[in-house]
Design a protein that fits this description.
This protein is α+β, with helices and mostly antiparallel strands. It contains 15 helices and 15 strands.
């Protein structure tokens, strides 16, 4: 059986195609109800980002000592298309764009190897280099601001880190909750030069003692109660007061407490940015969905969870939405679905208006959705989501489907008006234009 007589075979044996299309339609409806709605499809561009931080370094130092050396190391990698770098105070970021078609995982490994080779030439004060691949799913889909009348900036920052982030990360499909602005909690140790001189202790000795106290590392394995257990060395101070009682070793075996030469207090990091909403200080955070998840469902579940947190806090905490791309995504989805439905309805109206035949009108009204709905089942099998690209493709194909349906039905009606029965007219008309359609 070739493509030319598939339609004729289906007309002569109607039970098989009817059952098949009913099954495909049911599968398409079920698949459509479970499909994810996104703004953009999850695409992995061949782009690798190298980020290296050196706290306190000036942009000129960052450029000369880090950025230029990283660029020289990665420039020799095969497949590199373009390089672009940004040097700011305390941070260097290099974006390595590879040629289209390059395996992104292999590219990441190549860049990591190149960075490791020049690791010894970089300044000692840098943090561990971060090498990651660019992903569209990591982009934030919404930004929120948090305000509270009875919380300071540091309390509000800790509330987001400790409470809000934990609650939102439990939302299905949530990948990241990132706080923007605010402050980080830290214990401030302010040395007093006069007291240090009187006690005969130096800043180097204090620094070495604090490094020994703040220790959290693996300690190997030990046999406890007849079984081998993992051992960890924990030396972190639980509070600022406990840290202030740290003994600092000085000459002749003498020791002094940290509180004797310094002021120790539970504080927070330096405020480098301030955000306000309606004149009140706020702290903002963003949310990002996981790869393959729905923008709409993650956002809607987030809004519900934030409403629960507000209720639990008795109205003391307020969440304000600053920006969200989900509203555009929802409207895009609705307009695309509406366009497909409107196209099918207009096709049916056109068929009736020009052919004046109720049978042809009913057939076209049934055939168009039966041909388009199973597409969602196949999309689900492949792993596609309803996004800008897939909805555009559906709109284009729906237009082709409507055109073909009108041509096919019009040709059948023409044969019927030549005196043929509906059965014979359908077979002859399908044989004539089946291959072209």
């Amino acid at each position: 059986m070739n493509f030319r007589n598939i339609s004729a075979w289906s007309i002569r044996n109607p039970v098989v195609p009817i059952v098949m299309f009913l099954g495909l339609t049911l599968a398409g409806i079920v698949a459509f109800m479970g499909m994810k709605v996104q703004d953009q499809p999850d695409i992995e561009f061949p782009l690798v980002i190298v980020t290296i931080s050196q706290p306190g370094a000036a942009p000129t130092e960052i450029e000369n000592q880090i950025t230029q050396r990283i660029e020289s190391a990665v420039r020799t990698i095969a497949g590199v298309d373009t390089l672009s770098s940004t040097a700011t105070e305390g941070s260097s970021q290099t974006m390595v764009q590879f040629a289209i078609g390059t395996d992104i995982n292999a590219a990441v490994n190549e860049v990591k190897n190149a960075v490791d080779q020049v690791r010894g030439d970089l300044p000692e004060g840098i943090l561990e280099p971060q090498v990651v691949k660019a992903q569209t799913s990591s982009d934030a889909i919404a930004y929120f601001a948090v305000s509270a009348d009875d919380m300071t900036i540091e309390q509000l920052s800790w509330f987001i880190d400790d409470s809000v982030r934990k609650r939102l990360l439990s939302v299905p499909g949530m990948a990241e909750v990132e706080r923007n602005g605010g402050v980080n909690r830290e214990i401030a140790v302010t040395l007093d030069p006069m007291r240090m001189k009187a006690q005969g202790v130096t800043a180097t000795q204090i620094n070495a003692a604090l490094r020994q106290v703040n220790l959290n590392a693996a300690g190997g394995r030990a046999e406890v109660a007849g079984s081998r257990q993992a051992v960890r060395v924990l030396g972190n101070a639980s509070s600022a007061f406990e840290l202030s009682r740290t003994q600092i070793g000085i000459t002749n075996g003498r020791t002094v407490r940290l509180s004797d030469v310094a002021d120790v207090r539970d504080s927070f990091s330096e405020i480098t940015s301030i955000a306000k909403h309606d004149g009140k200080p706020v702290v903002t955070f963003s949310i990002a969905r996981a790869r393959g998840q729905s923008d709409v469902s993650v956002y809607d579940d987030t809004v519900k969870e934030l409403a629960k947190i507000e209720k639990e806090q008795g109205g003391r905490v307020h969440f304000i939405q600053l920006f969200s791309s989900v509203g555009y995504t929802k409207e895009q989805y609705k307009s695309s679905m509406s366009a497909m439905v409107e196209g099918a309805v207009l096709a049916v109206i056109v068929v009736f208006f020009f052919l004046r035949d109720w049978r042809a009108t009913i057939v076209s009204a049934i055939a168009i959705p039966l041909s388009s709905i199973p597409t969602f089942w196949l999309m689900s099998l492949i792993g596609f989501t309803l996004n800008t690209m897939s909805l555009l493709a559906l709109g284009l194909v729906a237009g082709v489907l409507v055109d073909d349906a009108i041509v096919e039905i019009e040709n059948i009606v023409r044969h019927m008006r030549m005196g043929k029965s509906a059965y014979q007219a359908a077979i002859d008309a399908a044989d004539e234009i089946g291959l072209a359609v």
